Amino acid sequence: MATSSAAGKTIVITGGAGGLGKVIASAFLEAGANVAIFDVHEGRLKETAAEWEKYGDKFITAQTDITDETAVNTFFTSVSAKFGRIDLLVNNAGIMDKFDGVGTTSADMWNRIIGVNLTGAYLCTKAAVNAFETQSPVGGTIINIASISAVRGLNAGAAYTASKHGLLGLVRNTAGFYGPKGIYSIAFLMGGMDTNILDAFATGVNQENMAAVSASNPPFDPAVTYVNLNDAAKYCLFFSDPGAARASNGAAISINNNWPTA
């Protein structure tokens, strides 16, 4: 999985202590990059830091709330101070709803999903763009882990669907405003994955609505349809090359094992 294009670059990954975020972070470390992750889960951060001791001072881990602008800005400042610049942000942190339609979505659930999935991505995108504009040479790339729910209406509940539609708008707007400055923004429309995002189902799910989602889509067989996390990480490695990122600036790239079928 190693690639020379990532060597020496500095990568920030949100939600990087578990699931897809950790796989992406590990792939970049193996490729010789500097990696900075933050996550809200203290236990996962400690386990990850212990596993990465072999990489010496090539990584930073921090327990940070993605919805806290001051904490986010402090983290980005610390990364730039340690490694000299930031080359890539992967907006990976995200949480799932329970398949509630708008009529049964509580305000607390709505605010939590939008807060993490959209406001958190906005705060990190803002911090990254400000870092990209002030470093020398100017430039950088933002990869946003979106979802097929960013372009489809019935693959999740109202809150998650709205958050990912909003994220796609943020991606395209950022690409338009900042692409001429060498700052690129890309969305990955992910399909099903075996990640920590499924933790949301531990306390229950709206079974009626989940059945409606299932009925509106082709059958989902995890053994066949799940996207391999290591394969998804390869896309991040590829787009760490500024030329590749420039060519796909503003794009929404499907990574879904053709489920739902195109």
From TrEMBL:
Superkingdom of origin: Eukaryota
Gene Ontology MF, one: quinone binding
Keyword tRNA-binding: no
Alphabetized UniProt keyword annotations: NADP
Record PROSITE patterns: ADH_SHORT
NADP as UniProt keyword: yes
Pfam families for this protein: adh_short
InterPro entries the record matches: NAD(P)-bd_dom_sf, Sc_DH/Rdtase_CS, SDR_fam
Segments crossing the lipid bilayer: none
Biological-process GO terms, alphabetical: fatty acid biosynthetic process
Family assignment from sequence similarity: Belongs to the short-chain dehydrogenases/reductases (SDR) family.
Protein name per UniProt: Uncharacterized protein
Organism in which the protein naturally occurs: Xylaria grammica
Lineage, uppermost ranks: Eukaryota, Fungi, Dikarya, Ascomycota, Pezizomycotina
